Fold each of these.
Amino acid sequence: MRVTLRFFGELRRFAPDGAREVTLELPAGATVADLLEAAGVPLDEVWLLALDGRQAGPEAPLHEGARVEVHPLLAGG
Amino acid sequence: MPYGVHDRILRVDLTSGKIWTESLGEAAWRRYMGGRALVARYLLTLAPKGCDPFAPENPLIFAPGVLTGAYLSGQGRNGVGAISPLTGGFGNAEGGGFFGAALKRAGYDAVVVTGASARPVYLWIHPDGAELRPADHLWGLTVGEAEDRIRQELGEKVRTALIGPAGENRVRFAAVVNDRSHFAGRTGLGAVMGAKKLKGIAVKGRPGGVPLADPAGISALQKWMGRNLELVAGLHDTGTAGGVPYLNRSGGLPTRNFRAGAFEGHEKISGQTMRDTILIKRETCDACAVRCKRVVALKEPFEIDPRYGGPEYETVAALGSDQGIDDLLAVAKGNELCAAYGLDTISTGAVLAFVMEAVAAGLLSTEEIGIDLRWGNGRAMLEGIRAIAFREGFGDRMAEGVARLAAQLGPEAQEFALHVKGQEVPMHEPRIKHALGVGYALSPTGADHMHNMHDPMYAKERAALQQLRLFDPELQPQPPEVLGEAKMRLYFHHTNWRHFLDSVGMCHFLPYSPEQLRDAVRAATGWDVTLEELAAVGRRAATLARLVNLRQGLDAATDTLPERFFRPFLEGPEDKGRPLDREAFEEAKGIYYRMMGWDEAGRPTPETLEALGEGWAVPLLEG
């Protein structure tokens, strides 16, 4: 299945060539955590994690056409 | 004529009713810049040694900074300071909103209030002067009611800093409320206003009331922020409470008075859930493009007035997970009550969590309390807030704060009395952030999360670390759960910068680099400042604040951390976090003293004061 990952703020450094988002092909049954691993984004750098615009945990299952957003840690704590 | 400031401080003596202005001179403004540094300076020059927080001579300072009032995202903040009723030492908190910017635009850089009034009064400040007005008719009103009345009297456009019933009743953690929904919440400064019979300050500025050296420079940075909102998109979307899931999976969501670091009901109280349920809009502070502030509304089962805004992360954790409460509606109602009554949500939640643990431990009974304060009871939490604000029944004892209440309950209660210097621990877990734990001990205000370091920021090669290297190229990433020289070096530079931000009047959440902020200070003031000079402002603020504490009897023996954080979590998750090591903790404090130029007993040396340009304060070291 094809899944899109969108990077915010300084997490864009994990995006290829500074792109805003990347679309990856993942096997059926893959989770958000699998997507982050495939994209090389360490989970401990992700402050906010959304799947299709809703809060999601790393264990959430993905589906064809899913959109995942990752936001970086905040400066203020 | 300086830029960025007017060099005009409003002095008010409530005992005599006298009002006058004074100047510090431009050189002093360049040293202090406002906020925390200015508060520390005034507390040293005006407060007698060992000053009683409720005595008329306790100076109460409202201090924006040199950036406040410029049309720039993040500048809408002001410090408030006094000797703290909670700690007995350096009291200081910052609030956002519009009040600070309006004060600057009215032509004043700070307000310093001494004395005490016989009758309730409020202070009305406008571009043509200032006057004290009777406030008998406002005494006893909530913050919102009082603001409504003042606006009826003075016009809709006035901005306010007010106390509610909690401040009037000298609750030791009463807040000062800016513009109804922004809070200088910590260290109990609202109670100082209550003791002075000062209901609040109303202010009206005039547009463009702050002269800027280079308005185009400020405007360029404002445009940069507008173009780069993506950097703070998450903050805008979910507010600070968007961090709940992240903290929960890190083991850093304070749960049941820090017995655990993860909460089974965390999804129900997250910023995401708030956004998807009760959020009706996002609000902002003066001229800020980020719009991170929540506005929530509700009719059933509780009615919530949206004009009080909505809960921040600290509130969600303090009124939610830390009390085992997973009812977002009750948390939101509790937030509104704390705003209306003028209570710090962190200390309020921490006191209630402490009482819940005391009940669970059998040290208190719900019959004795008169409220069913047990883990997870959201409605009891709301009753507890009312009891505290009005000091009703057992609320009178809770209004004294965790440290004083625990002292009445005996040695067993000390084990879970989570405070430093008398200030309740905020909603960040030292066992996943070891420098933060040392920071709780070292903070001049008692346990604080803002002028502190959150270790994961510097755990990897990230933008934050690259920026901090501007001050020290040798800095290296450090794991969150270690201490030592390299970690404390990060802490030293990071917290100096935080103390600078709290002096200059800048929000910690804005994504500006140090160079951008240096340029902003240059554009506002025309001073050719360097990064080293700005960091020295922070070091000066922390050093003078330390001196205030020493004069109040708060020495290195009060640089402590509750025992709970030196032990494993009492409840899961077992694989997260690591207790602090006592020896490493003690060593870390000593490292910081040395870096700051303080002696082994944590006292600033005369040489350090001289080097900071504060030689005048050397005699204060001796008494």
Amino acid sequence: MKPLQAKPPDDDVLGSLGHPSAPDDTGDLGGDLPDWLDSLRKSDDMPPAASEEPSPDWLGGLRSQPEDMLDAEPASSAASGFADSGDEPEDWLRGILPVEATGESDAAGAADLGASPGEELDWLQRIGADSDKPADQTSENVPEWLSELEDASPDMEPASVPEWFTQEAQDRVAPGDARPEQLPEESDEIPDWLVGSAEAEHDWLAEEVDQQPAPSAAAQDEALPDWLTPLPEEESAPAAGRSAERVEAELPDWLSQEISEPLTPTAAQPAEEEELPDWLSGEGEPTLDWASQEVEEQAALAAAQPAEEEVELPDWLTSAEDEAHAWMAQESKEKVPPEAQPADEEAQLPDWLLGVEDETIDWLPQEAEELPSAAQPAEEAMLPDWLSGQEDEQLAWLSQAAEEKVPPSAMQPAEEEAELPDWLSSEKLPDWLAEEGAQGAVAAQGTAGAPGLDLTAGEGPADEDLDWLGELEAAFPEMPSGAQVASSWGATEAQEGLSEPAAAFDDALPGWFAQPEAESGGGESAAAKPLAGGEDLDIMPAELPSWLEAMRPVAAVGAAAGQDEEITKGDLVSAGPLAGLRGVLPAEPDVAQITKPPVYTVKLQVTDLQKSHADLLGQLLAMEGEPRPIPGKPVITTQRLLRLVIAALLILTILVPIVLDLSFVSAPPAPAEALPAAESLVAGVPQEGVVLVAIDYEPGLSGEMDAVAGPVLDQLMKRGIFLTLVSTRTTGPLQAERLLAQLTNLGAPQYAPGQQYLNLGYIPGGAMGLLGFAEAPRQVLPQAMSGENAWGNSDIPALLNVNSLADFALLIVATENPDTARFWIEQVQPKLNDKPLVMLISAQAEPMVRPYYEADPKQVQGLVSGLAAGASYAAQSGYRGAASDYWSAFSIGMWVAGLLIIVAGLVNALSAYLRRGKEGVEGERQT
Amino acid sequence: MTGFVDLIGMAVGFLLTICVFSYIFGDNFLFRIAIHVFIGVAAAYTVVMVGYNVIWAQLLSPLLSGLLSGQVVLVVPLLVPLLGGILLLAKMNSRLSIMGSPVMAFLVGVGAAAAVGGAVLGTLFPQVEASANMFDFRSITALKFLNGSIILVGTVTTLLYFTFWARAGGGGAAAQRPLALRAISWVGQVFIAITFGALFAGVYAASLTALIERTNFMVDFVIPLIFPGS
């Protein structure tokens, strides 16, 4: 690692601000101007009235550089000494110079601004004398920081110009640098505080013009005002004779210490960091990158500056360079003169300059190594990494800038410093300014061998906050940003291929600085763009990034504004009490406005296939509604003929035994098992017992049921058993009455109602009624069919002791319906308490009821089913009734039926056989 | 007088019987007249029977008797069936039918409960018990065992006959029941055929008896008319 060395001589920001690279620069500085300043010059075609913005006056002077002045610069430069020297003053200084020269121009017309520096500073003295007026004037327009500065330094004249200003004046008044055509216009833009001293400037400017052709230290000393005389004495020593020791002696302690210690990246850096203020010591903070670069640039500038150029900027000027902080850094690098800098100059750097970030220190040795010029060892050492490591194009502009910025006479004579006023002395300057001046002076001293500076600077500008950057940006929007300047410079100087600082430089720049650089794009600098309109504070339309553009509420505001505009445009009430108002809601809603409804076609768009399907469906529906003719039937069909034959056969077979009273059929067969049981049960009814008889059959089957029930009831009636008749059918009670009457007619005893029997009538409710009757017979059937009380009636003694069904001696159910029989079995039989149940049923119900009789235990104790059982029962009991009469007919009919079934079966089998044979024959024929 | 009324009655019966017999030749006007007369007479008789034997005899007569006698205890229980009967009349009107729904629900519920209870306790359990008792070895006989076996086989095979699940045939063949099941079903089918034959025989016997009775009635009515004094 190489020891830390001061940057190669270069025009730093201070140099660009007010210190020309050489005191005797009389050439046109237009070529050396940074782009942003160049653009500033070109864009200063704004009207004079535009300069009356609330910006500081001195900046107004800067901004108010008329374009015509710049346009006239070549001519003036040609006539001035700057053209010869090839060095040009900074543009913003041009903006100041014409102000100064305005008075002169008024007096001398087109005379050159060849006033000596000493004469140029006279007006500053007068300004100091007339401090009241400028103070009042500037108090209105100057920034706050400037006002504070004035308040804090009451003894300092408001018009007191710093040294750099004086130096610049000296540069500007070089012989042949007069620009008479600009003076009248520039006079309008003179700050107020300068206007007051304009007349005073005329004199010294004229003198300076006269003295400029042969500038010398002695002449300058003579021109120096009184208040500047001490300063030249200190700084009049030639730069070459100024040794490092003397500089070191003049340096403050902290600086002396730095000088005494060999600066090495390893040893000097920690100590420097300790002395760094907080805002500089924050390594790694992006916001301080630019500061580190600036420090380096300041050091380089100090090395490049002649010893006479003591940079002592007041606070307000320091703040004025806010906008140019970034470009100052680049400018300092660009203005590094090719001359080698003494290695010991770096020792003169203040701590705050040396105490930069690591990256800043690191690039120094690398840069020194990478610089191509072997004749410039110091310069190489001062080149940072980003300078050496950048692209060729970056190096190009750097080399170009170095060639352009460095004047032939890089060393300013020490005599120029003698013109500094008293108030510019280090004692009166702010610490930071003194420090910066000291840095610049040290750098200049080391570079040109000029006498060292009286560095009375104290500590660095640690107290300053970085917010001034933002404030300055906001206060002077028309000023090109440092990034733009840097980009423009980068584009220009990249062609030189000397360095590659762009990337590293961008990294060191603040965010607000780097963004415009990116937007500047390529070779054309954003600073080259003219300022918007003639307004000082007109802000050029920024190119917002897409993401920021998307966040702008412009659309919503625009939409809202559009709506408001619509409201204001329309609905202007023309009549009524609200006439003249806009945006009034309509009294009639829109829905009430009758409009003709749109007409839609009802024609369906269907394909041919769909249409055919629809037609087919329509035909089917139409056919369903049309009556179809019923095919005629033959009068006599086989089915009907067969029906007639069977009916006739049955009727004839039945009529013959009935009509002829033939008894050719034997007696009924012996009764089955159920019949004797029924007969015994009926016969086992006690004489005083009461038999409950249910007549539950329909009149249609009364012929069979009467034949079945007659023999049983006849047996009971012959015994005089009291019968209680009930029925679950509405026709049952009448069937019972008719049966009893029929039995009486057939020889049974006459049964009188209430005496031998009691017809309780109809039991409603089906199964429920039966269940209720089984549970409580008295409540369900309290009265007899005759209306008399059935229960507890003394007239019916048989029922006096009957309270439930179990009190009946026998239950006889005569029904042709198997379901009715089942209901009696299911609902009533369990309530009989072992009392017998005899079922007198039709033949058709026997298959359903017999299982109850066949069950074990028996649910039906006796069963008489059908005419055959009734006839058998009648034969056993000696009853001659219908069963006996019907038996022969019934027997013949059963045989006929059997024969018909057999014959029909045979006919069906034969017909089937014949059909199958016919089909087989036809099949064989077909095959 | 009694003989004339009986003669009129027998004449009406004869004519109606002839009208019903006319159905041998198919549906005809006489048959329809006889059917309509029978239905009308039966309905009228039912109304009279129910009104007189049920509503009046079992509801209104006790209610009036209680009111007249001042026996509220007898009257209050009768109000429930009276109110239920009135609400049932609301079923005739579609708008008021919902008023009779509770009463109808009560009747259906009680009727279902009675029917189900009677079927389970009066038919199912006793018949299961009876079938099981046929194989009681304490009192078993050959005939009883045979009878019981036939009943058991007939019952099982008949139930299996109504098993209609089948196994899907491969290769697109029709699904068929297993062979064993088909054999059992065939046995059950035989028992079902026998049962239907028995039922048909019973129906035929009952119908033949009715025909004989009607034929005998006509003979008894016509012969005296044709052959008076016979």
Amino acid sequence: MMTAAAFAAVAALLIALVCLAALVEVVNTLEHVQQTTGISEEIVENQALSDLLRGKDPAAFGFPSLHSVGGATFYLFVSPKCLNCATILERLGGQFPSHLSLIVTNFEEESVDGWLLGANVPKSSRVLDHSRRIANQIGLNQTPTIVSCFNEKIVFAASVPSHRALMKVVKDGYIPSSVFEEVPTHQE
Amino acid sequence: MVTSFLNHGLALIAGILLLAAGSSKLAAPGSVQRTVIELGFSRASSAVLAAGLGLAELAVASTLLLNDGRVPRLATLALGICFAAAGARALVLDKRIECGCLQGLTGSLGWAQIAMLPFWVAVGSGPSRPGQSGETSISTRYMLFVAAAVAVAAWRCFFLAPRLVAMGRLRYSLGAPQ
């Protein structure tokens, strides 16, 4: 015969199993939501933009000059029309690394100042791309996009969907693997 | 000795399967309800059937492992026949009916459930209380039950761990505080 304590232990184990199964269900549902909405933090190289810009001087496209850290400088294209950009700027909280500059593009002239104030972007860390001059010149049509330079030469352009992804590039020096696949091999 | 070991083994495997299936059904009754409706049951009865099946699986698994008598063995066989009948029904209807059995792991209803019938028959026709009796038997049964529960929990954790890591990434990408 089962004692009351044994019965309670068995019941507790069964409830724990159901709770664990419910947790699996919740996580599966979240995974499904992530897949459906396309939310991810994958840093994807913008191939067309990279091919166009690679090896060129960023100043030639009107990018501002920056103090480099270990030879690296970064330009982040953002737009007030991009919700992800606002989230990234909110997470930055006005703390911009010295080797990162913001290029604000695709904005309404009358409302951009308010947006920049709300996003807490210091004047020293940003450039306004009036009439999408820079964006049109390089064929940029997606924000947030980061352009990574080394020794004043552009290395790659990639989408950075989150603050964490941005920091991975700017602070950790992450380079998408596709960049290495494209480097031509010189055979003498 | 070998027969006793085999019977304990069969009861343990059946217990693991029924514990996993029952807990899944109670945790996500929606997918089981859809399966039940597609098999031809009414929408009104589907909720009761889904919950009832989940509870029945947990009850049968527990009694099979803890009190390996004739009734739990026959109840296991009855559940196995129900599963096989559901598989046969899906084949007759010639429809792809998603099986909510183990949170979608087993795919769709059909030949898999029919192929499992000999296993359920073996469990159902096995001798009850094989080999031993008294206190030793009771402690062995508790160990079997705990082993089955741990196996199901470990199996869930094996699938859960990488998903929890992915969920952390989702949280960061949504801009939640680190």
